[in-house]
Amino acid sequence: MNQDLDSPTLEGEPAEGAQTIGEAQPPAEGRYVDWQWLYRSGQLDGYKQGSPPGTSAEKMASDRAAAETPCRCGAGREYRPFHEGPSYRFFALCRQCGLCEEFKQ
Fold it and tell me: What is the distance between the alpha carbons of residues 51 and 28, in angstroms, rounded to a whole number?
């Protein structure tokens, strides 16, 4: 498992239909993934937290704005960028229900 990654601490009760940490499953089709599964599965091994070197401030602000839109449960989300070489992925992680949306660049 990548030691550079921070596992989230979720607060409150999961939203209806959301998976809890103990139920972590591989992602279904689409952009939504289970953060705990992603974190534990090694899918981010080799990735470092943060945007790739040379990313413009405008691009980072745009990505952050996309990630920080409200979750389906109504709570705010957290921007989590990762990079490995030219590969760049960022996630919008809900701190309340744990739903995680992935954005690949």
Answer: 25
Strands 48-49 and 77-84: antiparallel
Average pLDDT for 73-78:
91
Range(s) of the domain holding residue 84: 31-104
For residue 24, tell me if it sits in a domain. no
**What's the confidence (pLDDT) of residue 105?**
66
* pLDDT recorded at residue 30: 53
| Positive/negative CA dihedral, 26, 101, 73, 78 | positive
Query: How many domains in the chain?
Result: 1
Distance CA 85, CA 59 (A): 17
